[in-house]
Amino acid sequence: MDAVLRDNPGAHRYELHIDDQLAAVVEYSDRDGGRAIMHTEVGEGFEGRGLGSQLVRYVLDDARRQGRMILPYCSFVRDYIARHADDVDLVPAERRGRFNL
Question: Yes or no: is domain 3-99 CATH 1.10.10.10?
């Protein structure tokens, strides 16, 4: 299984490709002083392999590298951050309550 993760800024989404097939996406919008994460989706036939979590990890690592704040409107990303306390700092302190973090 050859996995490729990348930001596709033209489509406003991060993508995870498996053997040249689009397996998962995280859609975003740059606004409100951060990167608003709107939706995560794992394609049919790719569910149950942890690919969504793998892609979210990539998204959060990319935000950290860029010094970018995350606004986790997507419940999957919000739940991931809640389970990984080391990532809560990516959400602006004054906005954490809005996201129950």
Answer: no
